[in-house]
Write a structure and sequence with these properties.
mainly alpha; 2 domains; two-stranded parallel ribbon; 2 strands; elongated
């Protein structure tokens, strides 16, 4: 039986949609025209973080939340009613990878 020469297989371009980029999209990422790509580009990350920081600074109480606590409070507030607790074990496994 003859074996296949894998070096002769066609190569696929190693580019991904921009919403999968770890930071600002680089040359190996294309601008996705799908809805998720449009939503991704509609988010102004800098303005979002600045707003969180300003909100945290405006709270002058001694136990005012830092930016990460403010972010977590925001996520909790915005996801009230979501049923995602059953995904936490899978998320922890992904985090540990």
């Amino acid at each position: 039986m003859a074996q296949a020469d894998i070096s002769r297989l066609p190569k696929h371009p190693r580019i991904r949609p921009d919403f999968m980029a770890p930071g600002p999209p680089q040359t190996r990422y294309y601008m996705s025209r799908q809805v998720i790509g449009q939503l991704y580009r509609a988010i102004d990350e800098t303005a979002f973080i600045d707003e969180l920081r300003d909100t945290a600074k405006a709270d002058s109480t001694p136990n005012a939340p830092d930016i990460f606590q403010a972010l977590w409070l925001y996520v909790q507030r915005e996801t009230t009613g979501f049923q995602w607790a059953h995904h936490t074990s899978a998320a922890k496994e992904v985090k540990e990878m």
